[in-house]
Amino acid sequence: MIQPVIGIIGGSGLYDIDGLEDKTWRRVETPWGDPSDELMFGRLAGIQCVFLPRHGRGHPTSPTHLNYRANIDALKRCGVTDVLSLSAVGSLKAELPPGHFVVVDQFIDRSFAREKTFFGDGIVAHVSMAHPVCNRLGDALHGAASGLSLPVTRGGTYLVMEGPQFSTKAESELYRSWGCSVIGMTNMPEAKLAREAELCYATVAMVTDFDCWHPDHDHVTVEAVVQVLLGNADKARGLVQAAVPELGKPRALCPCGCDRALDNAVITAPSMRDPALAAKLSVVAGRVLG
Ligand SMILES: CSC[C@H]1O[C@H](OP(=O)(O)O)[C@H](O)[C@@H]1O
Ligand SMILES: Nc1ncnc2[nH]cnc12
């Protein structure tokens, strides 16, 4: 049996979480550089949790310049098994108004200026991203949100744009025509890297605005986003407190296979593998690289 350790990545407006016992902030070093901030360690209902503010406390780091690899490596290094990603998003559907939560199940990655893999020349690996979200975590998050009577939808596609500027109206309409539910700037490559690191990963996308497609919302502004975000952040803290006791129960391997994502993914012959890269990958992929 596995004793889960719950990682929580807090997005815009979520730079701290409540109710953790024995809370301490600690710096964690990784071979990929520095994570966004110190990580906060503590226990919720006796379950070990590790919290990381995605953009750092005070939000100094833009979506493009986040060190996604360091963030994911640091969580894994600290023993995290399950990652809850909490993110502010714009809505691309009329039925998902500000204040609504979406437990997304798909992503379209339109980001282009980020490091997207732990692997590369010297050790090449290809993991499946067909089902980018851990269903087990998604179900638990949806169940916890429903239990709290939060307005929540299970399933939906999160379009990841590069940013930092918000979309043009034509882009917003394009993504709507693709059937996307919400838009944000951060969940890729985060979800790809979590998969490479064999971490279960699920996102609660918290709607702050209607993006610019909506006739009543001609522009997205940070001011409008932040107003909704603060209320969403309070609800998200409640959601974490409700979900963690369920997710922290000792369990078998993940039925979705997230924790075995690297089985059969590394294609580089053992004799051709770069020892320096193998050393960097020791935490992320040590299970399969030996
Ligand atoms: C403050 S609005 C734009 C900003 O918020 C979202 O970040 P996160 O996913 O970390 O909550 C969005 O992706 C942008 O980075
Ligand atoms: N409309 C929007 N576009 C991209 N990221 C966002 N985060 C919050 N609202 C957003």
From TrEMBL:
Keyword entries, A-Z: Glycosyltransferase, Purine salvage, Transferase
This enzyme's EC code(s): 2.4.2.28
Binding annotation for phosphate: 12, 54-55, 87-88, 186
Enzyme class label: transferase
Alphabetical list of InterPro entries matching this protein: MTAP, Nucleoside_phosphorylase_d, Nucleoside_phosphorylase_sf
Record-annotated Nucleoside phosphorylase domain positions: 6-244
Residues binding substrate, per UniProt: 185, 209-211
Gene3D superfamilies noted in UniProt: Nucleoside phosphorylase domain (3.40.50.1580)
Molecular function in Gene Ontology: S-methyl-5-thioadenosine phosphorylase activity
Record flagged with keyword Translocase: no
Site (Important for substrate specificity): 167, 222
Function text: Catalyzes the reversible phosphorylation of S-methyl-5'-thioadenosine (MTA) to adenine and 5-methylthioribose-1-phosphate. Involved in the breakdown of MTA, a major by-product of polyamine biosynthesis. Responsible for the first step in the methionine salvage pathway after MTA has been generated from S-adenosylmethionine. Has broad substrate specificity with 6-aminopurine nucleosides as preferred substrates.
Subunit details: Homohexamer. Dimer of a homotrimer.
Database matches in HAMAP family: MTAP (MF_01963)
Stored PANTHER family: S-METHYL-5'-THIOADENOSINE PHOSPHORYLASE
Family: Belongs to the PNP/MTAP phosphorylase family. MTAP subfamily.
Name of the protein described by the UniProt record: S-methyl-5'-thioadenosine phosphorylase
